[in-house]
Amino acid sequence: MTLARALATFCLLPLLIGCGGNDSSGDPITIDTDSPAASEPPTEPTGPESSQPSQQKPSIEIASAPIGGNVESTENGYQCAEVNWLGRNPIPDGTTVKVGSPHLEPGGVFELDQTGCGDKSPPCGTDLVWQSNTFKPCFVGVRQIGSGNAVQLILSASAECATEADCASLQGQVPGSQISFTPGPPSG
Fold first, then answer.
1. What stretch of H or E contains 18?
2. What's the gap between Cα 44 and its chain centre?
3. CA distance 82 to 5
4. Would you say 108 and 150 are in contact if contact means Cβ atoms under 8 Å apart?
5. Cα–Cα distance between 8 and 16 in angstroms, integer?
6. Is 177 exposed, middle or buried (0-12, 13-18, 19+ CB in 10 A)?
7. Are 85 and 130 in contact (CB under 8 A)?
8. What is the pLDDT of residue 21?
9. Nearest CA among 89, 96, 104 for reference residue 60
10. What is the mean pLDDT of residues 142-166?
11. Where are the alpha helices (DSSP H) in 40-186?
12. Which of 86, 68, 94 is nearest to 179 (CA)?
């Protein structure tokens, strides 16, 4: 007899004696602790449940995403680019493109400054995700800080795809950035 069964028998015995009193036959009341009704339920495991093996989806890192769009000059050396996806269009179903942080090449002529875009949104950056059914352009603002030649907007991206072929097709026919900012005459 296990300790739990012995305790159950010990605890139930006074209860049955107190409630049952004497029966008319004068036979003592017995409790069968070996019956299935008196057995304890099986204990559940306390460790973490086993998980299904994760399936790695195909992915790709794009150092210079295929982007294009219009650049609009505003006052005081500010410019704003509307950034559109020029890769495979539409973005394949089951593919998620995560936009990275924009940067400018070469440096020293413009600096990133979202003020150039006013209230246009969303800004391009690490919180932005493009999918086939949720694509909308983003905006990058700059401010001229020096003189020089045109400066290219570079936007990195990473993508997770349904298939390897979908990832391979994302660069499209025109890889890299087609957006550049052209400096105006030096202010002063």
1. helix 3-20
2. 33
3. 75
4. no
5. 12
6. buried
7. yes
8. 47
9. 96
10. 96
11. 164-169
12. 68
Task: Show Cβ contacts of residue 57 under 8 Å, excluding neighbours closer than 6 positions.
Answer: 160, 161, 162
Looking up tokens 């246009």 gives 120
Q: What angle do CA 115, 186, 124 make, to 5 degrees?
A: 25
Burial of 132 (0-12, 13-18, 19+ CB in 10 A): middle
Query: In the block, which residue shows the tokens 């057995």?
Result: 39
52-105: pLDDT as tens digits: 555 688 999 999 999 999 999 988 899 999 999 999 889 999 999 999 999 999
Please compute, for residue 149, the number of CA atoms within 13 A of its CA located in the half-sphere on the CB side: 3
Whats the size of the chain, residue-wise? 188
Structure tokens at 3: 């300790």
